[in-house]
Structure formats: C-alpha cells, structure tokens
Amino acid sequence: MGPDVLVVGAGIVGAASAFRLAEAGLRVLVLEKEATFAQGSTGRSAAGVRVQFSEPLNVLLSYHSILEYRAMPEAGYRPIGYLFLVPEALREVQEEALATQRALGVPVEKLALEAAQALVPFREQGLAYATFGPVDGIIDPHGATAHYLREARRLGAEVRFSEPLLGAQRKGGVWRVATPKGRYEAPLLLLCTGAWTGEVGRRLGLEIPIHPVRRMVYATAPAPFPHAFPLAIDLATGFYLRSEGPRVLLGRSNPAEPPGFAEGMDWEWLGPTLEAGLFRFPFLEGLALDRRASWWGYYEMTPDHNPILGFVEEGLLVAAGFSGHGVQQAAMVGRLMAEEVVHGEARSLDITPFRLGRFREGRFLKERGIV
User: Fold this and answer.
1) Domains defined for the chain, CATH in brackets
2) CA angle, corner 83, sides to 80 and 88, nearest 5?
3) Where is the FAD dependent oxidoreductase domain (predicted)?
4) How far apart are CA 124 and CA 113, in angstroms?
5) pTM surpassing 0.90?
C-alpha cells in the first residue's frame, strides 16, 4: 500500500511534519533531493529561536516550538536570550510589539540601557531602551532534524535521499510524482522545500511566491571574553552578533542582494556589515575574522517575509517561505500541518493569516521583527 502523504524536503520543517503526520497514523514518504538531511537553509542557519515578533501568529509559532525544543535533548536548546537594542525612531513600534508579546503570555522584558550593558557592551547613542527574551536562544538544527526523522521512521515513515522532484501531476485525486529514481503516488503532497519552493511549484505548474536570497554569517577567530553574549540585534541597522564558544558570530541582511541562487561568501558585504557593527559594538575592533569558519545560506523569502502554510489547492500543502524563521517555528508547524491533513484545517492555532490566499487578495502582513 502506498503512502497517504508525500513530504518533499528533509529539512527541519519537512522532518517535523513527517513525524507528526506519522504520529497521526498516516503512511508517510519523505523525498529529499540531497544525499542526507538538513543540507539547505536548515543546516546553514544561525540557529536562533525567539518569541520577539510583532505578529501574534509568529510569536505563538515560535513560543510553542521553543517549548518543544526545550523538552528535546537532541535539539541542544540553550536559552542565551535575544537582546533587541531599540532606536528612538522605533520606540513606539517596539512598545506595540512588546504589548502583543505580553498579551500572549510569552516572557519578554523591557530593559533600561544601563541594565542591557550587563549582557553585552554597546554604544548607547540613538537608542531608547532594550528588550530581552529570556527563553529566546539557539538550538542545534541538525540534532533536531535527525530526531524528527528518526521518530518518523520509528512510526513507519520512509525517507529517501538523492530524489529531487522532477515533476508532479494530479489525476483522479492522486498526485503522481517523478524523481530520477522512480515514480510515486499519494493523495496528498506537502512541499517543505524552503528556498526552492518557487522552483518546485513551477514544476507542478503553480506560481508560489517564494524565492531564495543569500545571507552571510561571519565568524571571528577565537578570543577570550568574560562571559557569553546573547544574540544582540541593533534594530537601527539590523546588525546582529552572538557568542559561539570563544568566537563571535555576526551578520547583517543586505537589502540590495538580488533574489536567486547565488553561491559563496559575499566578502564585499563584510565592509558595510562591520561598519554598522563597529559603531554599535566598538569591542569588535580588536577581533580578527576567521574566513574559514564563516558561511552562507539562503533565506526563503515571500513578498511580506512571512510563511505560506496549509492547503494551497486540493491535495497540495505548503509549509515554506519563513524568511529566516524556519528553524525557530518548525516544531509547531509540524503539528499544524498534521492537523491540517487530519482535520482539514489546523486547530491548535489559526493559520489563516499565513495562507497563500492573502497574496491573491493583496493582504500583506507587516511583521516588524524581521532581521
């Protein structure tokens, strides 16, 4: 007997979805184009998890996921915290986001700049205050993905690697999917294909507004520090840093980076990144960069930088387009995709704001917590 659901993609979102679908008693087959799991955006993530968003659904997706990662040893959850440095120009906007977070019952603190200095030294010029999420932190995306796939297999799911989706057609209520190694059929198809979702959609004859944008993570050489730094973000410029053992990881999104599958490190963007970083965090001046420890990956971007979740047409679901937030929301998304399949709609959270139809209707969300 064939599978009930074909899950395309073995990153953390696909793995979590496969596990929850199998847990619900469905026969699941996962198809992954790479030779192993977590080789796309998952494996190249900066690994952060945070509740500090402005859209309620983003807050809750992340919070429920963090609670799941906290109970999962394989996820390697470390609550190092996220520190947002809020400029005067964003004082009111961030106050509104903070009110939303508190109304939803998630732990976020407002800090005076003096108190924030105890977490990481920074120049206070132009800043109003800071916010700190004590349950925010980092996880091990590889460990979490491996756990989900292992649990999915334990429940009967099958995972096949080196099988990219070449094409798919739906006839008679069944998806017929072709890969270089074979053909598969199932009533339901779930795309967890990250930055490749727009391309995969076109192979199905669909236009799904998700495209890749390259992002850099620069790493310093090891250096002694008195304590570990949280993931600190200067909201004035989008520059961020955090500790990784004796190193500091740092980055800043390039708004001029064109969409597409560009590869390799963008060393020309290091200058503008450091310019913003050195202004706010002068201690970085004494650190050396380790080019070999730096890396790049893709954000899977939608027009409003929020994901597309759930059914997009009969028999076809999408869980992609997280725009940098896939790792931190995958645990809860897996549960919601299983509910969407079993019940016809997600029940634990209302995912209506993140359905594809919003773009067709011209309803773009305004998430203020994009970095």
Assistant:
1) 1-79+136-210+302-371 (3.50.50.60), 82-134+212-298 (3.30.9.10)
2) 180
3) 4-339
4) 7
5) yes
